[in-house]
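Could you please consider the sequence and fold following this short note?
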Amino acid sequence: MEKTLQKRGIQLASMCCMCCKEEESLNHLLWHCNRAKDLWSWLCQLFGCNYDFEGLEQALTKGNNFSSLIRDLWNVGVLAVMVETWKGENKRLFEGERFNSYSCSYKVRWWLRAAGKLSKGTFRSNPLYRWFYP
C-alpha cells in the first residue's frame, strides 16, 4: 500500500507495521518478517519439515516430498499462512489491532481441518491424523 502512495508522490516512513524493523513490502510481510517467520516455522514443525524457503514457489515445491494428500494439505497450509498474515496486517493497519500469531495459527488450523475433511484420501498412519481428528 505504501509503495502505491509513494508512486503518487506521497512520502511515508515505510516501516513494516508488524515487526517495526524493516521496510514494508509484500515480500517482507509474507516471507521475511519475524512474525511471518514464526508462522512458517510453526507450519513446518506441524508437517515435520524444515523451514528453508523464502517465497511461494519454494514453499509449494517443499510439498513435493509428501504423499499426494499431505501435499494438498501442505499447499492449503501455505496459502492459509499467506492469507492470514495479510489479514493480520490489515487488522493492524485499519483496525488498530495487534498482530496475534496464535489467532493466525488457529485460523490456519481451521483451513487445514476443512481441507482434510473435504479430501478423498486417508492418512490414518500419518502423525498429522491425530492433530486433525483428536
